[in-house]
């Protein structure tokens, strides 16, 4: 059945995104077959994120596999990114959660045996250093992905500093606009398709004028991209008052 799906889609020159959306409506057998086909991708992505060679016997692979499954279930064109880019973000998010939990566990077990105090102290220092480097690397990769998304709209990362709303009440209004766009599938689809704000629909749903919306266009689009994607580090920019 899955082979038939692939053959039909490729004949129509459909992308992997269309295959994923089709599989979402298919049986578990099609889903399992798809995951098996992308096991090399999962292994490679997990190894890259962890900075070491990962095998199917490693816990990290199981986490990556589960995350890939989750990415299939969660993906939609509203994400604005390719499926594989989205899957990488989900795998990265789950692995980061795993490493942070492991780090906390290391701190707990370190106090359980005084005889191993020095050894545990060394392990904790090394592990904390690894987590710090891991976070730094993945934060950079997330920013690179975000920048690539911005470039599709003709927006540079540096320009966001100048267009960010300075007044708190303006920021509140802008974040309300972002919530309206990202919760409306039609508007979000138009945003990604036309690479501009869906002004006609937007002005009928918000109190801000077209002039104000246009003035803050770049910032609104940037926040919509963050809100629609599963970024780990950039989500903090969506918090009111930040």
From TrEMBL:
GO cellular component, one term: cytoplasm
Location in the cell: Cytoplasm
Keyword terms, alphabetized: Cytoplasm, DNA-binding, Sigma factor, Stress response, Transcription, Transcription regulation
Transmembrane segments: none
Molecular functions (GO terms): DNA binding; sigma factor activity
Mechanisms controlling activity: Negatively regulated by the anti-sigma-I factor RsgI.
SUPFAM superfamilies according to UniProt: Sigma2 domain of RNA polymerase sigma factors (SSF88946)
Domain RNA polymerase sigma-70 region intervals: 35-104
PANTHER family registered for this protein in UniProt: RNA POLYMERASE SIGMA FACTOR SIGI, SIGMA FACTOR F FLAGELLAR
Subunit structure comment from the entry: Interacts with RsgI.
Family as reported in the entry's similarity comment: Belongs to the sigma-70 factor family. SigI subfamily.
Function: Sigma factors are initiation factors that promote the attachment of RNA polymerase to specific initiation sites and are then released.
Protein name (record): RNA polymerase sigma factor SigI
Source species: Gottfriedia solisilvae
